[in-house]
Predict the structure of NAD(P)-dependent dehydrogenase (Short-subunit alcohol dehydrogenase family).
Amino acid sequence: MGSDLRTNIHAMFYLTKAAVPHMKSGSAIINTTSINADSPSPHLLAYATTQGAFQNFTAGLAQMLADKGTRANSVAPAPIWTSLIPSTMPEENVRNFGKQVPTQRPGQPAELATAYVMLADPMSSYVSGATIAVTGGKPII
């Protein structure tokens, strides 16, 4: 679990630390977390822990950077179909991938795009510290 935490959390922290001094007022930071931040899968404990940290980091960052005019938000997808799915799971899991959400299917990467575009849009200047759930109908609270 230690290496997952170092790899995932340290990368986000140090990348943000390096980028923030170069960001102008009106900039937006958009992090990716997961539904596992709010609804952790026990067999993905290390991953779920890092996703909770991403969400918490983003919420705190939004408050810290508000006076500089920089927004920070995150997108939390549920199961999304990528090329890694069939190459990293047993066939039975692949067949059932995404069926645990109300839409009973995995999302497609393109279905995430509008959430990122909305958060990047200057017209979303009042949205900061938010996590946008792209979860096939499964709520995060």
Summary: Helices lie at 2-19, 45-65, 84-88, 91-96, 113-120. Residues 1-134 form a domain with the Rossmann fold fold (CATH 3.40.50.720). The chain has a mean pLDDT of 93. The chain has five helices and three strands.
